Fold each of these.
Amino acid sequence: MTVYIDPPVWPGHGRMWSHLISDVSYAELHRFAAELGVPSRAFERDHYDIPSHRYADAVRAGAVEVSSREVVRLLNEAGLRRPKGRTQSR
């Protein structure tokens, strides 16, 4: 199982956020997030939003640190990218 996380550089709701993704499947991503204790409401289209204070927890649990550009590249190559504004089936 390999999941990836980008640096917490995305502002929102008074915090900085990271994106947690899988390049294999959403099932893999959901399992990792559940084991980490991330609430399902943090899932948005193709990633989990992870607050900066949980970044180190995700890395300790096995998430591989990558750049934000790498997150997009990995999702696109895996066919798992779900851009905003497009209707998606689950």
Amino acid sequence: MQTTTQAAEADTHTTPLAEASQPGRLQSLDVFRGLTVMAMILVNNPGDWGHIYAPLEHAHWHGCTPTDLIFPFFLFIVGVSITYALDGARQQPATHNRTLLRVLKRAAILFGLGLFSALFPKFDFSTVRIPGVLARIAVVFLVCGILFLKTNRRQQLGLLAFILIFYNVLLQLVPVPGYGPANLEAGTNLGAWLDRTVLGEAHLWKQSRTWDPEGLLSTLPALGTGLLGLLAGQWLRRREVEPATRVAWLFVAGGGCVLLGMVWNGWFPINKALWTSSYVLYTGGLALATLAGLYWLVDVQQYRRWTLPALVYGVNAITVFFLSGLIPRLLNMVKVTGANGQETGLRTWLYDTLFVPYFSPLNASLAGALVCVFIWFVVLWLMYRRNIIIKV
């Protein structure tokens, strides 16, 4: 990781970071990233996993809740970010090899952070989960970075269409060895079989050990989500097109993707765990529309007073995501004696003491998650005030 420290801005409510004001940078993208990570922290840190409001849970299998939008939004943002980070290098083919090494290095760091998070605190390599959120982000960043440097928009669009159709054919037509006909069930679909065959059950999602929601095969359509971001970013960078026209066509493309995803849902259901082609289009369309709205408000109309919380999260997104997964485990390693005389982890004790007695079970769980979001906001705001940005 790399840390940069600059002079603090005089007015953080109205003035973006110096980096955000540079030509070609989208402050709306930082806002979008920040809102997405705030939502990710909220749903990943309930006070009690047994009591969660339905919109803050993933769909049981087929279907899509607001929580199911978070990860594809983040991968879409990765794609958009690549167009802004690598466009200068793309125009200079002589520097491509050096740029590819940088892309590979960043992807390796992201994958390593994900592996470290899975290992912590026991560091048991025999049962460590290899797939995961950071691992998938690493793969999507690596492949989309290469594609951005080496292909044009038409080729990227064609590859996106091929991936979505090919993945549909794989999951619905190719028989599953040892199970028979193709199917879309949790433990018996082609992707689950591939995960067990290549990685082994010990290295999959611990809640099942028979399949993984970030498995190998479903990473293929996840690349499609990143490609949608690449295409959106390149469209926004077309300075010869008026901002209003860019926004309008982003909304049109978003609406078209949502509609196509809903139609495709009829025979290839929207499903996050499988990352189905309909899911790519449906969530990608919503991401396109969200980016269009934020771009119009933040970058075109300059309505920025409300953006501080999102910016605070957005400029240090990977930092807060990584640390927010480790610190609850660290807290529960500290043992305290509860009112019942039994020893419990510090995080659990704090939740049982500060929230459970004063709220209903659902509201106590939600309050715990909201306080977690607020605590991280304070930490990140202090970093923001000092312009401390930890980059991978």
